[in-house]
Recover the amino acids of this structure.
């Protein structure tokens, strides 16, 4: 019997997850075998000062502990002591060391003996090997080892992403290769010995990429206990990018740059050649997201496609995945062409919002990731949490860029839409509901049609977001002003009720004021788009910026400029 004894199955409930402070890393080196972890009994920090190449009563090493600790400890565990370490109700700390140390707390539910003959193909599949290979590897790693543990979390343990911290470092990299991908991205492979300890464990991690100044010089900041301290020189321009792939053996990092006009990163990538250098910082932290959610949805524009690509590379074919891309060029969809089993759709922002209204999202075991322009991503995320009532731990909405002429996490800008979004404050919720009543008086419509109709009234100068339209539609239905049915396209269609018509008639004067403001915006847009007006505004801005940016500008000249601006404003008002 002893010759056939292997160990115990330990079922455990996940309680919490946290990274280990860096000052404790020396407590465990995990035998230098890589991809190992350890179970720590209570008080091990005081009893063990250094473990290297040996087993200890307070530490049990196990093999193939995945990054995804929140999904459960579903891998084979190796140990060489008795079941006394594991008792029902006992709480243990479980950790893994490779590039960082991670911990979670588990509570033992049951301990069941396992015999060598009990090992089956499921155990082997978890180890990515055949059953014969699994039994062989036990003897190869530790010839005298005769105890094996398979540890799993409780089935109902909640799977949530876990944030871990990395040591912040700045590294100088050299361009090794450059390849055009799907006509919309440049893929750059960067290399450096400084990447030896690089770590990126979240599919949407971001590193800070610093672009060389004209003189090619860059002095990285100092990382201190007080934070990042930059020197006296000018800080270089930087953008955030997702590490697409990292080859630790070759010390090679792959980044994909989306190509568009006017961006510092895109411009640099277009001109970059093998041998060019640049600096990166980070990633400072990673959000480690379980990969085995049964239903997963990814909503993005071009800026988030590299993160989506990295995520799809890590998912099994067993999960149900959909990708919605708000892209200006359908060529961008070719970027994901190597994943034919994944449903990838090109939709406008309004169509994405409409899709989310009708999507059949499971009650549990789902994950939704939304990125793009800040306000749009927030509106979609808020809708999923507030209107759909989804779990905040399972919905991630992140601004990858902003339309304010700058950038969010990633580079991309649409400056023409900046003023349009500013004007949203001209219309409050009552104005929006009144416009909806007015439009539905002409016949039924679905949400996206209402958005486009309001945009048409303002000649493109104002576009209400789905985060404004759909909550008001829900409220109007509750007020009895509209009914909801299914249109010919399968989308929800909204129809005005008798109560809605009565409310509209009572607010005709208010409606005239709202439509007048929309018409004024339309006239403003028409006039501002005249080539002569654009030329005059451009010349004015250029001259003003040149003067105000001059280091030789005297007080007398400054006051003359102010007087000129004031007089010009008066002349325009009187004209």
């Amino acid at each position: 019997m002893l010759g056939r004894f292997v160990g115990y199955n330990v079922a455990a409930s996940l309680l919490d997850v946290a990274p280990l402070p860096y000052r404790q890393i020396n407590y465990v080196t995990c035998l230098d075998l890589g991809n190992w972890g350890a179970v720590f009994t209570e008080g091990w920090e005081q009893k063990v000062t250094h473990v290297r190449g040996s087993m200890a009563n307070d530490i049990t090493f196990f093999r193939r502990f995945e990054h995804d600790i929140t999904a459960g400890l579903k891998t084979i565990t190796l140990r060489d002591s008795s079941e006394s370490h594991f008792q029902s109700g006992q709480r243990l700390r479980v950790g893994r060391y490779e590039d960082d140390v991670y911990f979670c707390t588990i509570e033992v539910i049951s301990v069941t003996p396992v015999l060598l003959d009990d090992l089956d193909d499921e155990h082997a599949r978890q180890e990515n090997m055949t059953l014969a290979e699994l039994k062989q590897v036990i003897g190869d790693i530790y010839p005298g080892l005769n105890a094996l543990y398979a540890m799993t979390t409780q089935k109902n343990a909640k799977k949530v992403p876990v944030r871990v911290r990395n040591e912040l470092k700045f590294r100088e990299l050299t361009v090794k290769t450059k390849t055009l991908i799907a006509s919309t991205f440049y893929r750059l492979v960067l290399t450096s010995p400084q990447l030896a300890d690089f770590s990126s464990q979240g599919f949407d991690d971001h590193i800070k990429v610093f672009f060389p100044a004209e003189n090619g010089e860059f002095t990285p900041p100092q990382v201190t206990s007080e934070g990042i301290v930059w020197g006296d020189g000018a800080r270089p321009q930087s953008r955030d990018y997702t590490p697409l792939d990292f080859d630790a053996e070759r010390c090679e990092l792959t980044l994909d740059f989306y190509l568009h006009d006017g961006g510092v990163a895109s411009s640099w990538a277009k001109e970059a050649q093998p041998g060019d250098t640049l600096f990166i910082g980070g990633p400072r932290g990673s959000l480690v997201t379980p990969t085995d959610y049964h239903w997963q949805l990814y909503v993005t524009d071009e800026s988030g496609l590299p993160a989506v690509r990295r995520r799809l590379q890590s998912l099994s074919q067993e999960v149900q995945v959909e990708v919605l891309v708000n892209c200006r060029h359908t060529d961008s969809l070719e970027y994901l062409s190597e994943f034919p089993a994944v449903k990838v759709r090109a939709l406008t922002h309004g169509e994405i919002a409409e899709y989310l209204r009708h999507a059949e999202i499971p009650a549990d075991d789902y994950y939704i990731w939304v990125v793009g322009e800040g306000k749009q991503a927030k509106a979609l995320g808020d809708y999923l949490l507030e209107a759909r009532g989804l779990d905040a731990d399972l919905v991630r909405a992140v601004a990858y860029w902003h339309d304010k002429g700058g950038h969010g996490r990633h580079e991309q800008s649409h400056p023409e839409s900046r003023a349009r979004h500013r004007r949203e404050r001209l219309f409050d919720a009552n104005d929006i509901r009144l416009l909806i009543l007015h439009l539905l008086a002409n016949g039924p419509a679905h949400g996206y049609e209402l958005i486009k109709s309001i945009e048409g009234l303002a000649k493109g100068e104002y576009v209400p977001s789905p985060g404004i339209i759909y909550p008001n539609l829900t409220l109007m239905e509750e007020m009895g002003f509209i009914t909801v049915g299914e249109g010919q396209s399968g989308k929800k269609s909204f129809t005005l009720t008798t109560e809605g018509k009565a409310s509209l008639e009572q607010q005709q004067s208010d409606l005239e004021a709202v439509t007048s403001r929309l018409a004024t915006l339309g006239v403003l847009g028409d006039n501002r788009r005249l080539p002569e007006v654009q030329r005059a505004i451009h010349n004015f801005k250029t001259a003003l910026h040149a003067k105000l940016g001059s280091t030789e500008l005297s007080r007398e000249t400054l006051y003359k400029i102010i007087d000129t601006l004031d007089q010009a404003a008066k002349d325009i008002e009187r004209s």
The longest strand covers residues 5-19. The chain has a mean pLDDT of 72. The CA atoms of residues 38 and 61 lie 4 Å apart.
